[in-house]
What we know:
Elements lengths: L2 E5 L2 E4 L10 E6 L2 E7 L2 E7 L3 H13 L1 H12 L5
Amino acid sequence: MPTLMRAGPYRLFIVMADCVEPRHVHVEGNGGLAKFWLEPVSLGHSMEYAPREIHRIRALVAEQRETLLQRFDAVCQRVQP
Length: 81
């Protein structure tokens, strides 16, 4: 599970089997787990996070979206047109 980024208590990562899915990141930290789609940034699902924390994580993902897309592509070896 390659880590794409760490930010505060959060680790943003992907699962190699997810390379066939639309680009997204998993987020773990503070006792929770979530999945955010990157195009557009939206919550896929979450476990154990309060709505306020989901809002903070979504803002982080949105702020770092371009970097996360590049890193996702690098790990999954996607070629951009």
